[in-house]
Structures are given as structure tokens and as C-alpha cells.
Amino acid sequence: MGTGIEYVRGDATTPLRKGPKVIAHVCNDLGGWGKGFVLAVSRRWPEPERRYRRWHRERAANDFGLGAVQMVQVDRLVWVANMVGQRGMRTGSKGVPVRYEAIDAALEKLAGEAAALGASVHMPRIGCGLAGGRWERIEPLVQARLADRGVAVTVYDHD
Question: Fewer Cβ close by (within 10 Å): the C or N end of the chain?
């Protein structure tokens, strides 16, 4: 049975495929941006980090929080989706930072955005690096929220 998720080796910040593309990744709920995949994003485009930091700073007046998604256009046909899917940044007494229900909610919102743009979605194995999540728990969410709804998804494994 095909998963509808394509796995490739490479860098999610240089997405394959033609047409509109959304690069999706997971952020924390503390306004911190400085480790992991976000560094690759910032090397290519300064805007997602700037917008994320402003979104967090002005959170009293916006939707910033677990499960929220911020779409940032970085090129004519490329958007970066800042998805808030981890509480804090460190693994500690309360376990790992990843919040599966927040990633699920963010993917649900992302599905609507991608459909409206007619875009494919590109991502590293979200929530599995510094956030400490397990891909076996995240992959079914990506499958249900995106792939099963006809959104083409490519997951990138860095060499």
C-alpha cells in the first residue's frame, strides 16, 4: 500500500517538484529560533525567522500558540509554514518537547493552506529532531491530514 508520502534524500529547503510548494517545519512555543532545521531555513531566507519572532512577541494579540500555523511567502511559488508543535525546547522532567496533538492541529490547518495554494508540502521528519518526537507517531498524522486528502508530501532525510 502506497503511503502517499514520498521519501527522498536531500534538503527540504530546496524542494523538488514543480509548482507551488510549502516547506513545513515545527517551532517551539517560547519564541526560540536557533537550532536544528530552522538554521537551514534562515540561511536561505531571513523572513520566516523575522515573522516568527514578531508573531511570538505580539502573541497577546494573535493566534500564536500550540497548533498554530504561520504562512510566510519567501519566493513567488514558495512558502514556509511555521508550525508551533513543541512546548519549550528541552527534554526534562515533563518529557520531550514535542506535542503530537499540536502537530496534528497544525497539519490540519496546513492542509487547508496547501489546498488553497494548490501546493505540495515538503518537510524534514518534523518533530523528530530536537523536539524528541517519534516518526512512527507523526507519520500517520501527516498521512491523515495531508496525503489522504490529496496533498503531495515529500519528506527529506539529510545525508
Answer: N
